[in-house]
Amino acid sequence: MKDRRLFLVGLVVAILVAMVVAQFASSNPDGLEFVAEQEGFAESATDHGLADSPLADYGENLSDNDGVNTAVAGLVGTLLTLAIGYGIFWLARRTNRTSSEVP
Amino acid sequence: MHIPDGFINGATSAGFGVAAAGGLGAAIKQTGRYLSERQVPLAGLVAAFVFAAQMVNFPVSIGVSGHLLGGVLAAVLIGPWAAFVVLSVVLIVQGMVFADGGLSALGLNIFNMGFIGAVGGYAIYRMLLRVMPKDGRGVTLAAGIAAGIAVPLSAMGFLLQYIIGGTTTVATGTVFTALLGTHLLIGIGEGVITALVVGAVVRSRPDLVYGAPDYAGQRTEVLT
Fold first, then answer.
1. Measured between CA atoms, how close is B64 to chain A, in angstroms?
2. A81 and B92 in contact (C-beta within 8 Å)?
3. Interface-testing mutation among B78, B93, B169, B202, with chain A (most A C-beta atoms within 10 A)
4. pLDDT exceeds 70 at position B224
5. What's B19's domain CATH number?
6. Is the distance from CB of A70 to CB of A58 less than 8 angstroms?
7. Are B87 and B117 in contact (CB under 8 A)?
């Protein structure tokens, strides 16, 4: 598989996972939340500073339709992470190349 | 696995925050040294995939779920330092855009999932690789098992932070047992997903896998 095709296939898979597979995600507490509830320190958690932002809790405040909320949050989050990650790695690579070329 | 604000006191959280920021700077520098131009898109893609996969909580027991952490998965594909960067980016996006994981707890979470999960998990992978069959299956198996071990280890990172600066006084012994039990189960899911993804990439493009030795594209039969 050519690099560009592999990248596109990978991106489609990531977007499908975030928009579609995430619809079937379990809403039960994760390991740490469960332990916190069981052991009685869950209440020590304080509200997240951005709890009222539109995409908080993966789009919970967006609309009444949970499916749409998850899909929007999944798409935005995946593309945003890709953009930031790609940017940092591109810069890391570039900075290193320039510094090694200049004696 | 994402620690919210409030579980760990401010001083401890700030200390881990400073350490995580320094670690991220060093990791970006290290990554620039070994990442090739061709691997840059793949590294960005790994970040996007880890974000996507972390949205999918799978059930592990009655009333308990878990999701992929992706540290070993990322480290085997693009190297441990790039994986640390990936987990940091994912955690920053989750914390600052999706209110998942406390803002004050960012350093705590980066330490647990990025440092222990990715860098530590990769060290376990390298050790396991030595005793595995010298072919693509060996690479896949070592990645899966290392990923499975990395999850409870990451949870032990939280235990350490809780011992240093927990805001509540629950006996650490019972927290240890509960954390270990649930995260051993989540580790099984982590191991299976990691083995599936690493296996697929090793089969199709072993040359793109940072952590795969040259023999990864061959079969055992050819070697013996």
1. 5
2. no
3. B93
4. no
5. 1.10.1760.20
6. yes
7. yes
Residue among A1, A55, A87 whose CB faces B204 most closely: A1
Is residue B73 assigned to a domain? yes
CA dihedral B150, B155, B157, B159 (to 10 degrees): -150
Task: Look up residue B112 and give its DSSP letter.
Answer: I
Taking an 8 Å cut-off on Cβ atoms, the answer to whether B59 and A28 are in contact is yes
Determine, for residues A25 and B97 on separate chains, whether the beta-carbon distance falls below 8 Å. Answer: no
Residue B197 lies in a domain: yes
Supply the ipTM of this predicted assembly.
0.94
What's the full length of chain B, in residues? 224
CB distance from B65 to chain A under 8 Å? yes
Candidates A13, A11, A3; CA nearest to B204 is A3
- The tens digit of pLDDT for each residue in B170-193 reads 889 999 999 999 999 999 999 999
Comparing B49 with A97, the larger pLDDT belongs to B49
In a domain, B161, yes or no: yes
Q: Which residues is B8 bridged to in the sheet? A: B166
Identify the residue whose tokens are 């992470």: A81
Cβ–Cβ contacts within 10 Å for residue B83, how many? 32
Contact B124, B141 (CB under 8 A): no
Domains identified in chain B, total number:
1
What span, in angstroms and rounded, lies between the C-alpha atoms of B83 and A89?
11
Indicate if the pLDDT at residue B71 is higher than 50.
Answer: yes
What's the whole-model pTM score? Answer: 0.95
Inform me whether the C-beta atom of residue A58 falls under 8 Å from chain B C-beta atoms. yes
> Residue B46: CB partners within 8 Å, gap ≥ 6?
A85, B73, B74, B77, B78, B82, B83, B86
A24–B contact, CB cutoff 8 A:
yes
- The answer to whether residue A61 neighbours chain B at the CB level (below 8 Å) is no
Note down the domain range covering B193.
Answer: 10-223
* Shortest distance, CA B204 to any CA of chain A (angstroms): 7
How many CB atoms within 10 Å of residue B80? Answer: 27
CB A21, CB B57: distance < 8 Å = no
